[in-house]
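Quick one:
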Amino acid sequence: MKFVFSSLFRQFLFWILFFSVVRIIFVIVHFSLFKDTDSQILSAFFYYNIWLDISAISYILAFPVLILLFQIFVRKKWIDNVALIYNYVMIAVVSLIAVSEIGVFAEWKTKLTYKAIAYLAHPFEIINSAGNSNFFFLLIVLIALIAGSVLFFKRFVHEKFSDIRIKFHFKIAIVFLLPFFIFLGLRGGIRQIPINQSQSYFSLNNNLNLLSVNPFWNFFQSVFQNYASWSQNPFIFYNPDEAKDTVIKMHKVSADTTVSIFTSKKPNIVMVILEGWSADLIEALGAKPGITPRFDTLVKKGLLFTNIFSPGSRSEQGMTSIFSAFPAQPLTAIAHMPDKFVKLPSFPAILSKSGYNSSFCFGGQLIYGNMKSYIYFNKFNKIIEGDDFSSDIPRGKLGVHDEFLYPRVLSEICNDKEPFFYSLFTMSSHSPYDWPNKKEILRYGDPERDYINAAYYADSCLASFLLSCSKQKWYDNTIFILVADHGHGSYISRNVYDPGYQHIPLLLYGNALKPEFKGKQDSAIGSQVDIAATLLKQLGYNTSSFHWSKDLLNPYAPHYAFISYEVGFTWVCKDGYFVYDHNLKKVLVNTISVDKQDSIVKAGKSYLQQLYQEYWDF
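Output:
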């Protein structure tokens, strides 16, 4: 039994060494990108990389473990050869991925992804793009890496099991223990959230983050995430030019204007992203009274947008919709794809560049949904997450409760310079709803009774925060943007396709809001995607890079919202809504009058086709 674990441990160390060598080669080839980050390179090599490396190695070792489990009962010499050949093949495959990544990085500025598979159909285009000298240099590196690794593996790592005899009770122990350890390695240990690329993100220098991310793990994760659309956009309804033209016309406005609602040209901005806050919590949006009574009080002093929807159902989709104005789409999430989201615009980055001190604060793990890498991409000057809070602060299963998140944010703001942009993401209204001194106030709403009570608690924390803010000297020049990351099931039984399921609050509040807009409501139909254009227009910035976003305060802007789900979408407009299921290839629900159905359905389908095409083209 000791021999078995010793052999696997040697294989594990071999791959740790292999990935370290690959990173050294990467740094040498692209030394100019790292020459000013000497101290942080060690972190990329020996700390932030380790868990993703372990996960990648666990995938690589899964087949040898399977062979070993078979071999301890059936001792055949040919099985040793199968194991050895497999390892040689994996060395070649991983070497090819790693060296190809080194080669394309200069041009792509990203890690190797599933896109590379499409390029294999035209290998000479890759050679021509790289140039002959670079191509032959990388070819030599590849051959040397494979040959050296194969020789090293055969000499120091490979062991023959065919002559080893193991007692029966040890065989049983091995059968149970090895799969368990492999499983732990695959998902990154005992944690609620399986491992993803965010585990290796730690620096504002994205090159260091990419160096830290395991190339094998990243490539196959990219392949898995995009398996349904490798070869082409799966949502082709019309001629591409026709669909594109429809979307362009949809976004045209007869007058590029807006209604000015801020008292200052450069107010402080505090954005509170409320975890899972459905419109079904807000009385002003048609909900039962008393669930979020403090928020309803704020509505009387702020500007409430009453027809706002979330394009996606996940937090990471909400983040990209809010910060980059890129709508969520079916099948995948762009936040999971670092090579793609780096092509997106970012309004936090625009604010930072124009003098705003920007910060993002979350009481949990940003690794969830790969949000960490995306948040780092947005160039926040400071990023605070769960591990940055004192260990003395009470936590739930997911992290710091709202009542402890807000004071930390307030402390950070009060020690910052104006103007500032703070974005904080709450979590107490997320399951498992384990807020401190949990107490049931609302005795209805099954099966979402815990959810609405958690919202009641979160509402009280929000009110306390805003009350504390109102006592600060910077308060009079501050706008608060309160918006949900996505909707949620509620005491109202809704189908997930129902627009009401993703109907969310969006409230602008604070003394930097002109008095004539306080207590007002705006019925413009839109989504989180429209926050970017609406806010930046108020501040006088160009919004052309946010082409999916429309200014909700432009009286000439179109009224619509796109809501995606796994295999289709819902389209909401002034004439009603329709639901399209792509698996069934048909419209499931349509409340739009017959004479307008064709044109409106075409608008919705064209929107999805063009959106996914842009995602695919990134």
